[in-house]
Amino acid sequence: MRLRTVDTRTATALAATMALGTALLTACGGDSSASAGGLTTVTLGTGGNIFDLPLKVADANGYFRKQGLKIKYVTLTAATGPSALQAGSVQFLHDSPTGFVTALSKGLPEIALGADGLGNPLGLVVSKKFAQDHDLTASTPAADVAKALADSTAGASSANTKAEAGIFLKSHGVDPTRLKWVSLPSPVADKAALNNHEIDWFVTSEPLPLQIADSGDGVVVATPLTVPEWDATHSGYSQFVVAQKSYATGHADIAGKFVTAVQQGTAYMRTHLADKQDKTVLAVAQKALPGVPAKVLESSLEQVDWPAEASMDAATWNTTTAFIDAIGALPDGSKVTTSDWTNKYLP
């Protein structure tokens, strides 16, 4: 689940400040009372990553326009998203579970309106040298991978990815505290350290691990397809759209139109992603994530469970919060109740 989510969406303080500044500058333009060409304009905060694809597909296919909406995008971080939402700079926020529960723990009146992603599209990539020295390939059994990592140097650019790697290691009897960990500022820094042989491996969200493998600089040896603890069944929601409770209540019509279009975009991805003749999803992905090879994008998108419907349920929320707790990211006493999410705006 994207809890991954949050992993690669961590930004530096400067980036956070700049993003928030951008959001605040668009406050007037993003006001849902404004209209353009007969369409109501709403501003949506996104993370600028693979999880945004259902929204971009919905836009590309005209689903928002059919609902009478025009979407204005603002790229935000886990740090700036809640502030922009509370300030009214954005009407909707594409959020991760860890970001959402953190906001709730602070008493922010947010409500989740619909889920458009399940599972954690994580990749564990080892250096080419480490793979050769330990006879590791993309098809090596997960237990053998974990055993090889027992005496290694790992990179970690966030507490979440380190914890998610730890879940994998512990599931195969390897104590993550016995490894050497190198703290790095970002997944890009992880990649540089891997290339410079400063670390043997790291975990982050796709498509970066598969990009490294595609360029021949490393080997992806663990994914949600081989690590059940990272898949949708075990980790729950990875991404959803949220709004202020007061906004959703006061603009119920717009909230309903918005989540209807999001659901249509997600359903389209689910049914058409495997259709190699339909290039819509891939074209949108290439535009949203320029520079990433097509085959890498396709493989990355296949690691997310894109739901046919955006509706949510208590059981999946329990799974989600249990996963957040397992990686040590659940604030003390925090929980997600039925007052924090709703399906009432879905068709």
TrEMBL record:
- For whether the record's keyword set contains Signal, the answer is yes
What is the annotated localization of this protein? Periplasm
Tell me which residues make up the SsuA/THI5-like domain.
Answer: 54-272
Show which residues constitute the signal peptide.
Answer: 1-29
Listed A to Z, the keywords are: Signal
InterPro entries the UniProt entry points to: SsuA/THI5
Q: Which family does it belong to?
A: Belongs to the bacterial solute-binding protein SsuA/TauA family.
Q: What is this protein called?
A: ABC transporter substrate-binding protein
Organism whose genome encodes this protein: Streptomyces hokutonensis
